[in-house]
Fold:
Amino acid sequence: MAAEHRRPVEPDAAPTVAHHTAHHAASAEQPSGPQAEQHPEQHPDQQQPTGGRPAQQQDDAPDPNRWKALVICLLGGGIVLLDVSIVNVALQSISSGLSGATPEAVQWILSGYALAFGLLLVPGGRLGDAVGRRRMFVVGVALFTVASALCGFAPNGFVLVVARLVQGLAGGLLTPQVTALIQQLFRGKERGTAFGLFGATVGIATAIGPLVGGLLITAFGTENGWRFVFFVNLPVGLVTILLAFRYLPTTPKAERGQKHDFDPVGIVLLGAAVVALLLPFVQSEQWKSNAKWWLIVAAVVFAVLFVVWERRYGRDHEPVVDLRLFRRRSFSLGVGLATVYFAGFTPLFFVLTLALQSGLQYSALLAGVASVPFAIGSGIASTVGGRIVHRFGRQLIVVGTVLVLIGLGAVIWVVADHYGPDLGWWLVLPLLVAGIGSGLTISPNQTLTLSEVPVQQGGSAGGLIQVGARVGSAIGIAAVGSVFYSSLASTKGDYSQGLPLGLGVSLVFVAAALVAGIVDVVVGKVRGTEASV
Structure:
């Protein structure tokens, strides 16, 4: 194994690939050569910008506004993630209060957002790397805010679907800037803490979305309450934009004036692969024909063409995705782990909300309250996990996935044995345990996955992690939903049987994430290459 893999280094100190060196040497018109080489174990703060390559680390002192900048990043990223789950409890309100909200339109309100979100993650990250992360962050928040207003004022189902597509595109542009800015602003243990807070935001926003949606619908009524599910984004978006201009950093001095390639062919091929892969899963309930699964074959074809093109294009230019990133075990395994984990984690709130509202006639508010224990556990554990990941590495993720398995297993047992009006109370402890496990999984995995990624590739690399999470979420919801709905059909609507069977599929996906974590720990110990911050 290469020397740089024997002792994980700061991503800023990780060697850049040869074609990047050549490309930036040409664009900067500065000499490169032995004098530009750096020892791989040199501390990032000691590195100086050299001709012919982007500086691996800003030579300035740490940004004094970095923690304020992190708050702004979490605000922007939080409203995007909140909209993944907040709409679940608003679907009944939309169906009853909006003209043209057919079942097909309602399905696209959910799936259209997921498709558009996944489509722009990697190109959005690449844009941020190339033209400035603060600029793309502000553009993303502004577009998301405008789209949220269009959603709230939508006169019919068609307009709402289109606005949700725009909202998803904005989310895909914004989200990779968050991880890239954290990479840029923080080093060492501080970076683990920052990613821990980001992980807490992911877990809390996903879990608390149904509660926020329920509160808004209760406050403003069933007929129009769904509109305020979108209006709530407006003040948050406006405040975030104003603060972003004040506290988010501009492009580092070492990277100013560099020319970047946008690789339009690579972007189109990757986008086609992502959409072809996601579409049959997000439309699995509405698109009944088995012909939809041929899109997976098309996705594989597009993915192969993408890899071939990137290898060829990368010989002389800067590709949209540096495929050499996947040679680093920390990155490739982390993306895979995120994919299977989100396939198991995301469907929990999808089917649980349905069972509580449709099966037990919980109000939107009460169904949302049921998710609070998970949010509390996830928020606390993510913060703690970010602080201690540098000590325990991927072993911490193994502990986290074990706790999620225990929590999900307890949820299945509770639903099977205590399905009734008091189910929400019975779920408090299992969801708390699952939330703690989730907090020890998401943020440490994010930190370790990006631990060896150079800062200048942080946007596209962060986008790839998010693509994995979105693909995993779509596959998980489709698989869990298929078993869930099939059971309801065969048992004439018995949620006490359908919910445990559906969550059993989630359990399998989380178990796969556990296996991936164990394999990495064992291989790392054998080779002496444990993943670390």
